[in-house]
Amino acid sequence: MHLLRERLYWRQQTRVPEPELVMQSETQTESFARAGQEDGALAFLYLYHAVQITSVLRPGDRVLDLACGPANQLLQIARLNPKVHFVGLDASPSMLQCAHNTLVQAHIHNVELVQGDMTHLARQDDASLDGVICTMSLHHLPDPSALATTLREIRRVLKAQGRVYLVDFGQLKLRSTQHFFANDLQQSPQFTEDYFNSLRAAFSVEELTAAAAVLGPDVQRHVTVLTPFMVVFRSAYQRPLDASALQRAREAFASLSASQQSNFRGVADWFRLSGYPMPCDMG
Q1: Is beta strand 158-169 parallel, antiparallel or unpaired with respect to 129-135?
Q2: What is the DSSP code string of 37-60?
């Protein structure tokens, strides 16, 4: 019902930037980190993006993760790609400390963490990276100008044949739909409030597309069918998952609860119906 109303409604909401562009609160950090843990509400979504991201990476790559947060998503990706070196960047010291703890506890050794602003990648040289990824974080930027600056920085630090995977919320038309998605995961009041603020801060598909144009024609756009709940920009390059990565992905999927597996399939189908299938069968 919500998706249909979104599809039929004609007026676009005004974007509302998040109250705090950098998450510094210990309560916010802990709430977000808990939701992304292996048994947390976001585990299915992190696994979905980890599998999709793996298909654009190659062994030996050096890959920058923008706004890595507590590294729960990056942990999933690094496990599937042990021969890729990842750099997790975040502006929040509290998030980076949480990320450090996450990676140490999981015995992940192919990730380094750095503090920095994704609109100004000062520590990264021109054409120095094989890949740049960013999962559900572009909406933290204050305005379209900062979004455009970030995409130009991504283009600057990528090698000529470098690859990207960028995904974020798309701007929804109805406040009721934003409330529906924010409350759907049934998490803590703090997480629900932050989730709702993230949805209100989402850029429109048009704004995201305009900013991503600098990456060139090789980058494809995929939008969830009926309504732009999520928007993916990814390089056209795709490789089959090798046997070890596929086994790890299937083991991670098997460890999800029945409801999480159902949510995973739901997201996969949502994108598949828009012409963006999974790169492998999760079993």
Answers
A1: parallel
A2: STTSTTHHHHHHHHHHHHTT--TT
Please tell me the distance from the alpha carbon of residue 262 to that of residue 168, in angstroms, as a whole number: 21
d(CA 82, CA 92): 26
Q: Catalogue all structural domains in the chain, each as residue range(s) with its CATH number.
A: 2-272 (3.40.50.150)
Neighbours of 92 (CB within 10 A): 23
Please write the tens of the pLDDT for every residue from 218-250.
Answer: 999 999 998 999 999 999 999 999 999 999 999
- Three-class SS of 100-126: HHHHHHCCCCCEEEEECECCECCCCCC
Task: Report the predicted TM-score, pTM, of the whole model to 2 decimal places.
Answer: 0.92
The residue with greater pLDDT, 180 or 73, is 73
Amino acid at 119: T
pLDDT digits (tens, 9 = 90+) for 193-203: 889 999 999 99
Q: For residue 235, what is the enclosing H or E element?
A: strand 230-235
